[in-house]
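anyone seen this seq b4? input:
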Amino acid sequence: MLKYLSYISIIAFILCGFSLRTNAIESQDSTIIDHIKSEAGDKVNIYLPDELLEKLKPHDSKQSEPSDSKPKTGGTMQKVVGFRVQVFSDNNHRTAKSEALVKERNIISRFPQIGTYLSYKPPFWRLRVGDFRTHGEAMEILQQIKREFPGYAREIIIVQDRVNVIL
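predicted toks r here
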């Protein structure tokens, strides 16, 4: 009996140490890159595009703004009432997020100049694209998206939203 208690004590001690190590790793606000560097020292070279590095950084899951939402010229960025093309909206908790991400990647690959806005407002995941001041501008992009992705055509609509404009 004493033999089994000592085995149980050893197992409990190991599990406790593993649990503390796991919690210490999870509690840090760092990226996987930081973790790899801290574990391996300066022996690891990591080569990746800036876009991937941005996606690896911790961010707010409520809404992801596109990297091109900052002004590229001397103007100031302002939010005004305008229009966006809503490409996806769904509340299926099992598939909505992954489907929205796939559609976002597809839109970015064909229309890299248009900003994408993926948002989660419970229970809906939504993908909207563009920053248009007029309904007509949004309609032009809607038609282009429908031509490029006929499978998306059924759910694509124009919605009024607060959009980013350079003043």
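Helices lie at 2-27, 32-40, 50-56, 96-110, 135-148. Confidence is low (pLDDT under 50) at residues 22-27, 60-71. kinda curious what u guys think
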